[in-house]
Every structure is written in structure tokens, then in C-alpha cells.
Amino acid sequence: MAPLTLATVPLEVKLEIANSLGSVADLIALYQTCSELRLVRAFTAIRKQVFENETRERLTPELIGLWNSLLFKRLQSEKLDAPQRPDSNDMDPEGNTAGDDHTVDFEPHGKEQILSHISEVSELRRTTRWFTLQFIEHHFYKKSENMPPTAAEVDRIDDAFCALWFWMEVPYDSLDINPYMLETATSLFGDTVNLKCSAADAAVRLGVYTFLRSRISHLGPLRPRSFNKEVLAGIARISPCLSRYFKIGVPNIIMMNFGLQGIKNIVTGRPNRSIFRLIPCILHPTLLDRFPRDEHQLLHCFTSLINTYRDNSTEALRNRRFWKGPDSLCVAGEAPWIQPGLDLNIVFWDDERLLKWGYCPATQHLAPTELAEQSILWRRESTDPPCTDCQPEWDCSHQL
């Protein structure tokens, strides 16, 4: 009797194996091996089940924080929308009704509680996965790449989008949370957590943030020249450079107020009622729920968070294998995004892909004197240039 193999086992067994897989990458491999699975009507349901299995294994602190942030916002919205039925016995001598402060009794869901909502949590990951595939397609198109992304590359970018979405959704004011002390926010996690990531992973977060901002940067400069002076003066109180406000500030404000799902609705042309809030978003940020208090927060709110939760230990940097192009130099002990001449894109991809694209391990380092000269040169080049886009009547403080 011939031994059973994956090709010879009954279809029912194959379906059972498929449903038990822990990652989409494994399902794709099985799908490519067993051609008859492609003909099974239940394959869509199997793919959904496997994605949920994968979500169970990838409940990162950021995903847990995102779920709890959205849960709190939903409970808060339901309480605000609920009809008030005051009883005369619940009124104080001045006629105010008890409970008018709209406070929400909220206990964060721990990992075990979240597992009972795995389908809903998986829907959050489907949104991040949509952006991950958009991100990969964008970069592969520029490289004419035909080798599909690996599971490690997808997970790396997925996690970065999830962290970025989490920062967008945290109800900082409602829960009195300092955005730079999220690790101690027990109201989101139920306990203290470690949100620090490696320098390389922080660079991935910077890359996905830059990509996401580029997808909505056109929304800022839609009609700035048609604004009246009063509107422009109001914006100028926050940002002395209106050009940077429209190009960088407005995308940041959109991220703060719409989240990743809202941005997907915008870029896919499927707006819902909340998208109409874009109008006040562009006209004046103070009309929205969340708006920047000063120019630094306006322009650097997300990059500051990326840097805050970056592990900047020299040991972590030494353990990272840097890659460079043929003519680039590598500075020992420096984060990827401040390497003179290095391409930030190296942090997204696996070593094998970088070798294929012509990169090589960075083994040559600058001498101390060269390092000082190159660092000065790089810092000069990376400094924000004077503004040349603002109109003379805008009175931009960043113009020469």
C-alpha cells in the first residue's frame, strides 16, 4: 500500500488541514500544492478562518491598544447618542441631571477577552493588510519586482501600519493619556506594556507614515488661495508657514481624526458621512475633535511618537545588519534614517531581496574625522529648507 501524502489524502482531510493553518502564507503554499483546493466553494471561508487564526497569533500590544481605543470610542459615542430620560429625583437643586458628564464605564479588554472578538479584530487587520499590499505594490512597481513578498516582509509592514493606526485612535483627552507615556496607560492595556521597537522597525514605521501621508497630501492645498484672510489668520496662529500646514499639517490632522479606515474610504472614493468633516478639516483644524496645539505638534506629531518608542541602545543597533548600495557608506552605531547616502527602503525587505536588487552588507565604516565631516554635511542637507511656496500676503515666518 502506497503511503499517504498530501496529494493522496482525501479532500475532507485537506480542508481540515487548511482550516487549522496558522498563517495566510501557509495557506498560499498549500493552495499552490493542492490545485483541487482552488475549485472548492468553501475556500473563501477557509481563507477567512486562517486569517483569524493568524490574528490570534499576532495580538501585539499595539493591536490590543487599537481595539480598546476603538471600543472606548464606540461606548462613548453610544452614550452621547442615547436619549436622555431624566427623572426629577435625579436632578440637583439647580436643575442639572446626574450623569450629564457623559462619562463611560470602561474596562480595557485583555488578551483573553479579545480572543472572543477575534472576527472583529481580524477586520482591523484586514484594513492594515490592505494598506500593506498598497505599500508593497508601490515599491515593487518602482523596482519592477516580480517575486511576491515574503510572510516576514508582510508582517513587518503590517505591524508598522497597526502601530500608526493605534496612535491615531488613542482617546488621549478623554482618558487623560500622555501620548509619550502610552506604555503606562493601563486604561488601554490593563497593565503596563513594552511598546519599544528596534531602530530598524522604527524606520519601517517612518516609511509607512511617509507613504500614508503622500496618499492624502493632495487634500491640503485644494483651495488655500481662495480662503479669506480671517481663516488664514486663524490657521497662522498654529502654523506660521501655511504651505507646510497644507502639505504636512492637513494630512496629519486627517490621520488624527479619521483613522486608517477613514483614510481608506477617502483614497478609494467610497466616502461615508464622516468624510464630509474634511471640509472643516481643511478650513480650520479647531473645528474638529482633535487638532494640533502648536506648529511642532502639527508637523511632527507622528514622527515624534516614532522616535519616542524607538529602542536607541547601541547594542540593538550593532545587532542590526545594515545594507548599502555600491557607492554608499555606513556609519557604525547610527539609526538607519540618519545614515549618509543610505536608502531608507532597505529596512522593509528581507536580505535575499536586497541582494537581488544589488545591495550588499555594509562593512566599510567612516573614519572618525570623515564621520564628523559627513555628519555635518548630512545635517545641513536634512535641515528644513526655507519656504518658497507661501504667498507674500501669508506673512510666512519660514521665508528668507
Number of strands: 2
Unreliable sequence segments: 93-100, 374-382
Average pLDDT: 75
Count of discrete structural domains: 3
| C-alpha termini separation | 86 Å
**SSE pattern, N- to C-terminal:** HHHHHHHHHHHHHHEHEH
Please identify the structural class as seen in this structure.
mainly alpha
Task: Kindly describe this structure.
There is one protein chain. The protein has 400 residues and is mainly α. The chain has 3 domains: 11-55; 59-77 and 111-312, no CATH class; 319-382, no CATH class. It is 52% helix and 1% strand. The chain contains 16 helices and 2 strands. It has helices spanning 11-20, 24-33, 43-57, 61-81, 111-115, 118-143, 151-169, 186-189, 199-216, 229-236, 242-267, 278-283, 295-308, 314-318, 351-356, 368-382, and strands spanning 323-324, 360-361. A two-stranded antiparallel ribbon has the order 1-2. Helix 7 packs across helix 11 (242-267), helix 9 (199-216) packs across helix 11 (242-267) and helix 11 (242-267) packs across helix 13. The radius of gyration is 25 Å and the shape is globular. The chain starts with 10 loop residues before the first helix and ends in an 18-residue tail after the last helix. Mean pLDDT is 75; it is low at 93-100 and 374-382.
